[in-house]
Amino acid sequence: MTAAVAARPVNRPATVLFASLAGTTIEFFDFYTYANAAVLVFPKLFFPAADPTAASMQSLVTFAIAFLARPFGSAIFGHFGDRIGRKATLVAALLTMGISTVVIGLLPTYADIGMAAPLLLALCRFGQGLGLGGEWGGAVLLATENAPPSRRAWYGMFPQLGAPIGFFLSSGVFLLLSATLTDAEFFAWGWRVPFLASALLVLVGLYVRLTLTETPAFQAVLDKKELERVPALAVLRDHRRALVLGTFLAVATFVLFYLMTVFTMVWGTGPLHFSRKQLLLLQLVSVVFFGLTIPLSAVIADRRGARAAMILVSVLIIVFGLFMKPLFGSGHMALMTVFMVLGLSLTGLTYGPLGTLLSELFPAEVRYTGSSLSFNLAGIIGASLAPYVALWLAKNYGVQYVGYYLSSSALLSLVALLLTARPRIGAATLSREHA
Fold it and tell me: How does it sit in the membrane (predicted)?
């Protein structure tokens, strides 16, 4: 046994970090490509055009479907991730997301096949949700379970970086298409390009992941024959408190991000009368700060703990929500830029430590399932209807109530963080797992 363990190949840190980053970048590129299209394209091409507002609302409902699918993806892929391993499951999750995205780029529109078009669109969006539901937790574990104990937050930051990079690439492609194509060309075929181009990214991600071996923590579970027969049931039976608190401590992260991206795009190109190009450029600039603050959050989390880092940022988000009206609601580009930069910087500060903190709440034998379920249940509560709720609040009560909605979600997450005990995984446990 000792000789066999010594002979096992060890994943190189650079390969692990690149594999976790590449996979989540591809998944989030696909996910945000749909988010951009749900605002800019689908209301015009996949829904009846008689009422533009109704078409936008219906499009946002299909956007929400992925968040409803993500817990199912967590349960399905988490089951196999905690039963057969992280590597094979991550490959399957990436394929599920990639195929669903490419098919969207091939769909006929409402003008071609009527109501079948939005139904097929919704089905593909469900597939995207399944894939991302399995991807995120596995990518975080791929990084953190290969990490030295003192650098878990730094390693766990790399899959989180996939979100801003994927978003930047997605918005950049839409901005480039908007700048180089006429509106007629863009709506005729240009919008399909990012969906179809995803196939090339998926091939790269698959190649990298197939070169990896199993993580040390899960290999230890295999060696000791400590596999759970049904990991999801084990989480619900033995780790309910961690699941509930993990879900609610992540809610503000989701609400903040999707208000900063989807809602601001809808409201900015609608009642505020900015052009599609202006809002895409503003988001492109702001998301750079999202990416820059994620490594900063990892440094803070490794020094002070992921929980302490997220408590501080939750307080800042509560305060930030009170400035929704004077900054974003002003309609002035300079103030809107300040608002977007601040909002996405706070998103990076709360998103960076999130994967590490959620993974620390669960033992290795159910960690894939538990952390994925927490993350994706938070997506249902905090993100699936956030753009829809925000749009309704803004139309009926004013933009300031969208800010109150954000502050309330951050208060909910703060309470969950305060109720969460210090991470159950101590330094000794981490050292044994990494060994």
Answer: Multi-pass membrane protein
Whole-model pTM: value is 0.78
Residue 57, classified by CB atoms within 10 Å of its CB into exposed (0-12), middle (13-18) or buried (19+), is middle
1 within a domain of the structure (yes/no): no
CA dist., res. 385 & res. 258, Å (int): 9
From first to last of the 435 residues of the chain, give the pLDDT tens digit: 444 444 455 667 777 788 778 877 887 788 788 888 887 888 888 988 777 778 877 887 887 888 788 888 888 888 777 777 777 788 888 888 889 989 999 999 998 999 999 999 999 999 988 888 887 777 787 787 777 777 878 888 888 888 888 888 888 888 888 888 898 998 999 999 989 988 887 888 787 777 777 667 667 766 776 677 788 888 889 899 999 999 999 999 999 998 998 888 888 888 888 887 788 888 888 989 999 999 999 899 888 888 999 999 999 999 999 999 999 888 888 999 999 999 999 999 999 899 889 988 988 788 888 888 898 889 888 877 788 889 889 999 999 999 999 999 999 999 999 998 765 544 334 444 444
Q: What is the CATH number of the domain that holds 320?
A: 1.20.1250.20
What tokens appear for 184 in the block? Answer: 């007629």
What's the Cα-to-Cα distance from 365 to each of 2, 73, 224, 240, 428, rounded to whole Å? 22, 18, 11, 15, 17
Does 2 map to a domain? no
